[in-house]
Amino acid sequence: MIPTKTTTGPILLTGATGQVGGELLNTLSPLGEVIAPLRSTLDLINLQSIRDTIRTLRPRWIVNPAAYTAVDKAETEPDLAYAINRDAVRVIGEEAATIGAGVIHFSTDYVFDGTGTKPYVETDPTNPVSVYGASKLAGEQTLAQSGAAHLIFRTSWVYGARGKNFLLTILKLAREREHLRVIGDQYGAPTWSRDLAQMTAHVIDQAEAAANGQNLTAPLVDSSGVYHISGAGETTWYGFAAEAVRQQREREPGIRFAEIEAIPATEYPLPAKRPANSRLNCTKLQQRFNWRMPNWHESLQKVLAEL
Ligand SMILES: NC(=O)C1=CN([C@@H]2O[C@H](COP(=O)(O)OP(=O)(O)OC[C@H]3O[C@@H](n4cnc5c(N)ncnc54)[C@H](OP(=O)(O)O)[C@@H]3O)[C@@H](O)[C@H]2O)C=CC1
Ligand SMILES: Cc1cn([C@H]2C[C@H](O)[C@@H](COP(=O)(O)OP(=O)(O)O[C@H]3O[C@@H](C)C(=O)[C@@H](O)[C@H]3O)O2)c(=O)[nH]c1=O
What we know:
- Helix content is 41%, strand content 15%.
- The protein is an alpha/beta fold.
- The structure holds NADPH dihydro-nicotinamide-adenine-dinucleotide phosphate and dtdp-4-keto-L-rhamnose.
- Dtdp-4-keto-L-rhamnose binds at residues 69, 71, 108-110, 156-158, 166, 169, 173, 180-183, 186, 237, 268, 270, 274.
- InterPro entries: dTDP_dehydrorham_reduct, NAD(P)-bd_dom_sf, RmlD-like-bd.
- Catalyzes the reduction of dTDP-6-deoxy-L-lyxo-4-hexulose to yield dTDP-L-rhamnose.
């Protein structure tokens, strides 16, 4: 399991204004004090500020959902994407290694090129086709080399009731327009931010129970590494959009929603390329931490009920 050397101290949470970070704020709180500095206090561009914060707080876990997530914009802002997605992660890893804190970091299906025909396992070769994907992969690699006990949760297609995400974009457009064209040949699994946050709290809880308050570091080596974790099931962006609109029509029978047409990715050119296959095989996390994600249809229903 993943006991950390530091058994006391708070949990330091980055990116609490984001989709996943916002949910983590709630799910991690029962595990003890959570300190979640905003960007105005801890800008991840400022590497010295990251060092100072960690040295002062001496957290037992650093949970890092903060990231540069603007996939298309990253193509023209690679330096900024790498600064947040790689350099900040390197410093988090180095400081965590020094104080013996565990690091939980989030990464993406976009580390793959999507040419594989099966759901990807953690050991499959990576080959990002976008700057965002490449910067996230660089973050994974730098954390793995830092010497810190770490878990990297590679997830996909995150959505929720708040924040910037595909679901909210589609629902907005579906109200405004008569017709929507959505890519039907990119496959993946939508993942509810809250499901991810619950999984993360479960993993921390299990790891701490296994450590049993001891300063154990050796078992860390067993569990450190990458884990795939997405909503159960699979679909395409079109399938996700169509199901969201179908469910929303049932909720709001009086409202007119756009018809949705499936199109190939070639008919929806964007600055950044996306993988055709984004499916992640989540067996490793199920086996190691005994956690299964709900099916994306079920979670979608809960999110729509919250809107
Ligand atoms: N969204 C998705 O579909 C997917 C996301 N992921 C990964 O999951 C993780 C969480 O993503 P998600 O919650 O959707 O991301 P969001 O874009 O919703 O949130 C990003 C967070 O990072 C913070 N942040 C960005 N730059 C800085 C900075 N310079 N200093 C401090 N904070 C900063 C933002 O703060 P602020 O509010 O101030 O901008 C925000 O809180 C990320 O690692 C992402 O790569 C993986 C797969 C899919
Ligand atoms: C709005 C819209 C999007 N699309 C397509 C474009 C794209 O291929 C796909 C998703 O579009 P978005 O730009 O919302 O999503 P995108 O920014 O590609 O989402 C990604 O974000 C990063 C952070 C990740 O890590 C990934 O897992 C993934 O979730 O849907 C349509 O086909 N029609 C539409 O009307």
